[in-house]
Amino acid sequence: MWWFQQGLSFLPVALVVWSAASFVFSYITAIALRHVDPLVPYISDTGTIPPERCLFGIMLNISAFLGMATMYVRYKQVYALNPEKSKIIKLNKIGLTLGLMSCFGLCIIANFQKCILYYIHVVGACLTFGVGAIYMLVQTVLSYLMQPEVHSKDIFWIRLTMLLWCCSSIVSMFVSSVVLYSGLYGMNLVQKLHWDPQEKGYTAHIISTVSEWSLAFSFLSFFLTYIRDFQKISLRVVASLHGQTLYNSPQSFATDEQTLLVAGSI
């Protein structure tokens, strides 16, 4: 059995590989069609003009679904490992909520392009990266609380490193974006897809775009730390019938009642 076939480790693998592919494929398409500059464009700029916009949107929507599945499995695993620790259970629920919000933000980014609906796109980015960073913080704290009983200290330090990488990228991107869009370098820069290195604001633009790519890959790197954990968990769906038929007959109601009583006693 291959390592990615153990437990549910294929989920974080699929999330990371698919998300990275969505960035790379849209970038290659945008470069080939000369829609953006080759040197580190914004990720959102590579998904602004058709046909790469269509590819970018559908692939990110699938990434959002994979993210929700991965975060749910993580939630179930932490709960199963700590069924009686109220502090961890509370943090775990908060983490799941934050994670789902972050995935919803990714859907907004995928479907509302930067050059068309800029403010909605920014809301999606804040949900994805801002709330997502808090999700990473919660998971890092959970890793700290669960070591050394559940796992070693190494995984905590690795996740803490990814979190610090993420936070530094956010700060760098925020500062450079504020400087870039402050009005000092002209208006309507949101619509600008091609930059000349001699233009004013080019340095701030490059710092901002590099920070965005760094931020995206810090997220993907964080989910890579789930692979070993997910090798030790599997989920299954159990079908529970509330009757022997699908008719609303007295007999089916009786069976329903009996089944529910048995289920309740278990």
Short note summarizing the structure:
Helices cover 67% and strands 0% of the residues. The protein is an all-alpha fold and 266 residues long. The two termini are 36 Å apart.
Task: State the distance separating the first and last CA atoms.
Answer: 36 Å
Largest sheet: none
Structural class: mainly alpha
- State the order of secondary-structure elements, H for helix, E for strand: HHHHHHHH
Beta-strand content: under 5%
Helix content: 55-70%
Q: Looking at the structure, what is the overall shape? A: globular
Number of strands: 0
Number of helices: 8
Q: What is the residue-mean pLDDT, rounded to a whole number?
A: 87
- Rg from Cα: 23 Å
Instruction: Note poorly predicted spans.
Output: 253-266
Report on the structure:
Mean pLDDT is 87; it is low at 253-266. The protein is 67% helix and 0% strand. It is built from eight helices and no strands. It is an all-alpha fold and 266 residues long. Helix 2 packs antiparallel against helix 3 and helix 4 packs across helix 6 (202-224). It is globular, with a radius of gyration of 23 Å.
